[in-house]
Design a protein that fits this description.
It is built from 19 helices and 7 strands. It is an alpha/beta fold. Strands 5-4-3-6-7 form a 5-stranded mixed sheet. Strand 4 and strand 5 form a beta hairpin.
């Protein structure tokens, strides 16, 4: 074949093999590893590292798929050529071996090798060249069989779903109430911001109501999962992505179930959870076990609280704001100017708790707030064993929650707590510690603490924190 004939053949082949762009370096196996990691609850960045791609690529995969796997995670059947086989074919083909010799080496039929070299060859550069990455890309693209979404094919059904999701609410006289104007920014709505007003039926309500409204029309049926897929997965051509703002969660991306179960602070390990706390803490027989928390006020002001479980003895932590709070925007990854960051809380707990004898420094139970991120250093500084409650389980610190309720008499919600100096906090703590308590047989917390210490032939402690 002459050169001009070969060029003409390549051009003709190009017309049949349209190239949608540069081949992706990531293979199907990489995507499978990525989504398997996501299903285990791994973060997007860590899942991308497991798949061998950059975090930017992993983030794009997750966003484009709406947080849902874009391919089946089952292994590919052996009847199809693998990437390793294509690499071997490319090497043998570059060595000028014939189709039958390549087929013998790879263990495939000659027709399979011939079809592979013809269909999946690279058509760039006016020559037919075979590269394994390009061939794998062509094969995966050709194997995809996108199915038309039911909502995209059924206009009547799509209109019903859209109206129940995003339809305007109205008064009893039929006058529409548009509500606040909110722009869709492609992410979940921020805290304490206006939400879009709509009918906001859940996909489950829509799916089950169809059978009531159209009992004899089988075409008006769809599962709630199909509605979620139409909302979260881009490119399905059914529902607009903006309609996710009408969901009650307002979530723009699907959150894998395993990720919700593993949600928590990275500094909290299983061995320091409340389930590992000694039994003596629960029965309140031994003093020295504390519960702690923050009470928050206006402008992110805060006061720390420490309560001893046996005697209900209370100590308050002064957490004044840092210089520049409220005057300048916080620098990214900079210190929390509100004053209740991890280092400030650690230092204040260490300052207060070290004024007590060693027998009263046994353990501290806290919730999973980020202010306790430096708990390891706190344990070194004070000798306290630190334990963390389960997420959203305030009853596991019942003594502290009750004390916080008492403190709201002095520090109401919505007030600026930073205006109270340390002397004022000590005075409030003294008031609580000298107030008789029914649970202590009408003794005060200070009296109960002194009695326990004296019964153990230990030194008495002061009644002020």
């Amino acid at each position: 074949m002459y050169k001009h004939e070969r060029v003409a053949a390549v051009r003709q082949l190009r017309g049949k093999m349209w190239s949608p762009g540069r081949p992706s370096t990531a293979r199907r196996e990489d995507r499978v590893r990525f989504w398997e990691a996501i299903a285990r609850g791994v973060s997007t960045e860590d899942a991308a590292a497991e798949a061998g791609v950059s975090s930017a690529v992993g983030t794009r995969w997750f966003r484009d798929a709406g947080g849902m796997p874009s391919l089946t995670l089952s292994p590919v059947s052996g009847r199809y050529l693998s990437f390793a086989e294509r690499e071997e074919i490319a090497i043998l083909h570059a060595q000028k071996l014939g189709v039958r010799k390549i087929a013998c080496r790879v263990g495939r039929s000659p027709s399979t090798i011939s079809r592979e070299l013809r269909r999946n060859a690279s058509t760039r550069g006016n020559e037919l060249t075979y590269r394994a990455t390009t061939a794998q890309w062509h094969a995966e693209r050709r194997a995809s069989r996108p199915k038309v979404a039911k909502l995209a094919a059924n206009e009547r059904l799509r209109g019903y779903v859209q109206d129940r999701l995003s339809g305007t609410i109205a008064r009893s006289d039929g006058v529409a109430v548009p509500g606040p104007e909110v722009k869709f920014i492609g992410r979940r709505h921020g805290p304490r911001k206006d939400r879009r007003w709509a009918k906001a039926w859940s996909p489950e309500q829509i799916a089950n109501r169809l059978a009531v409204d159209f009992p004899d029309d089988g075409s008006m049926r769809i599962s709630h999962e199909a509605i979620y897929q139409a909302l979260f997965v881009q490119g399905r051509g059914a529902l607009k992505r903006e309609l996710v703002a009408c969901l009650r969660t307002g979530r723009a991306l699907r959150v894998p179930r395993a990720r919700t179960h593993s949600r928590g602070k990275k500094f909290v390990a299983p061995e320091i959870m409340i389930s590992q706390r000694p039994a003596e803490v629960a029965d309140r027989a031994v003093p020295g076990h504390w519960e702690g928390d923050l009470i928050l006020g206006l402008n992110r002001s805060a006061i720390g609280t420490l309560v001893e479980r046996t005697t209900r003895f209370t100590m308050l932590l002064c957490l004044p704001p840092m210089d520049g709070h409220g005057e300048q925007p916080r620098a990214k990854n900079g210190p929390p100017l509100a004053g209740h960051g991890a280092q400030a809380v650690r230092d204040e707990i260490a300052r207060v708790i070290t004024t007590l004898p060693d027998q009263l420094r046994r353990s501290l139970t806290w919730d999973q707030g980020s202010e306790m991120a430096q708990h390891a250093q706190l344990r070194i500084d004070t000798g306290l064993a630190i334990y963390f409650c389960d997420p959203h389980a305030p009853w596991q610190r019942g003594t502290n929650e009750n004390t916080n309720g008492l403190l709201r008499q002095y520090f109401p919600k919505g007030t600026d707590l930073s205006r109270h100096p340390r002397d004022d906090l000590d005075a409030v703590a003294l008031a609580l510690n000298t107030r008789p308590r029914k649970t202590l047989g009408w003794k005060t917390p200070a009296e109960a603490l002194d009695e326990l210490l004296h019964s153990g032939h230990q030194a008495s402690v002061a009644t002020t924190p």
